């Protein structure tokens, strides 16, 4: 494991109680409303397993070994993935989540093709990206997506847009002043 992986793991573990409350009682229920009860779900970039803990049957992958070991020690289902390679069979998942992951990838074409490969026909991908304030807070962010850029990127990769929603809700002031403000797109294979 390299130093940046260790740093990111420590950062995730230090997030505060207000963030946890926001995720578990506002954000994750919003995301979950887009997932059917019996769907097989994959969380790409699962971090320390916050969503995996919220939605127990979800499987997670991350490129950060320390994050995956942390998830496994918590009894969560997770594995290490190689960059742009998902360790699953074709058409293995009904729904895939990338929550605050896409903006870290300079050229997401390969991972988007892998997502299409492991999604069932008519499967959905739910992608969340930070607003202006959240994007500017992390030196590892490589590509900024607003609503139109997110839609363009996914439709250009062969997905169709189903809907867009915002967390906590759409409000222009949040975009520039609230680092937790995110745009979410639900796209269909």
Structure description:
The chain is α/β, with parallel strands linked by helices and 189 residues long. It has helices at 3-13, 17-32, 50-54, 65-73, 109-118, 132-136, 147-156, 172-177, and strands at residues 41-44, 59-62, 78-80, 93-99, 119-130, 160-167, 182-188. The protein has a single domain, classed as Rossmann fold (3-Layer(aba) Sandwich), CATH 3.40.50.150. It contains 8 helices and 7 strands. Strands 3-2-1-4-5-7-6 form a 7-stranded mixed sheet, with helices on both faces. Helix 5 (109-118) links the parallel strand 4 (93-99) and strand 5. The longest helix is centred in the N-terminal third of the chain and has 16 residues, at 17-32. The chain is globular and about 40 Å long. The protein starts with a helix and ends with a strand. The mean pLDDT is 94.
């Amino acid at each position: 494991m390299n130093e940046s992986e260790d740093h990111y793991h420590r950062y995730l573990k230090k997030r505060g109680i207000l963030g946890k409350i926001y995720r578990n009682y506002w954000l994750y229920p919003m995301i979950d409303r887009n997932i059917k009860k019996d769907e097989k779900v994959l969380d790409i970039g699962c971090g320390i397993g916050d969503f995996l803990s919220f939605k127990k049957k979800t499987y997670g992958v991350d490129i950060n070994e320390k994050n995956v070991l942390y998830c496994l020690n918590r009894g969560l289902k997770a594995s290490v993935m190689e960059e742009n390679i998902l360790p699953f069979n074709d058409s293995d998942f009904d729904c895939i989540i990338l929550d605050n992951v896409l903006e870290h990838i300079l050229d997401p074409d390969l991972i988007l093709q892998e997502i299409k490969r492991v999604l069932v026909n008519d499967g959905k991908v739910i992608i969340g990206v930070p607003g202006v304030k959240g994007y500017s807070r992390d030196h590892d962010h490589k590509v900024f997506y607003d609503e139109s850029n997110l839609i363009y990127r996914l439709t250009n990769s062969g997905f169709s847009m189903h809907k867009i929603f915002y967390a906590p809700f759409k409000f222009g002031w949040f975009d520039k002043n609230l680092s937790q403000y995110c745009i979410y797109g639900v796209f269909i294979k």
